[in-house]
Amino acid sequence: MKIEKTVNILNRRARFEYEILEEYEAGMVLTGTEIKSLRSSKASITESFCQFIDGELYIINMMIDEYKLGTFYNHKTKRERKLLLHKKELQKLEKKLKDAGNTVIPLKLYINDRGKAKVLIALGRGKKLYDKRDSIKDRENKRNLDRILKKS
Known about the structure:
Radius of gyration: 18 Å
Largest sheet: 7 strands, antiparallel
Low-confidence stretches: none
Strand order of the largest sheet: 1-8-9-2-7-5-4
Shape: globular
Structural class: alpha+beta
Number of helices: 4
Number of strands: 9
């Protein structure tokens, strides 16, 4: 089993589905087998979201596979994991979540240079269908422009 120094797990659908308003970096409360499994890049945040439970922010539906060498100490693959933010950031997020259409979504899961597991979360608002069409059109225009520049 290969343990990597840099782990970078992205939620590619998030920027397409949501308009990003603000970004925050949060730590996570993990068990021993979870961090070992995370270091071997065995995690997924594509269907996860963040929710306030009793004034604390939790990431829900994040999948961290069971650690291969873990015995009966192994963790549950999908459990609520507490996110660590400063108190003022939590209060600010909770206040903005009360607005209609706002949600907190994870964008990126990584291990920083000090060896701590971090998750980049964002306050986002769901895009409408025409916004998604604009995103697709912009992406295709950029791709075509890059092709033309590459040929010349």
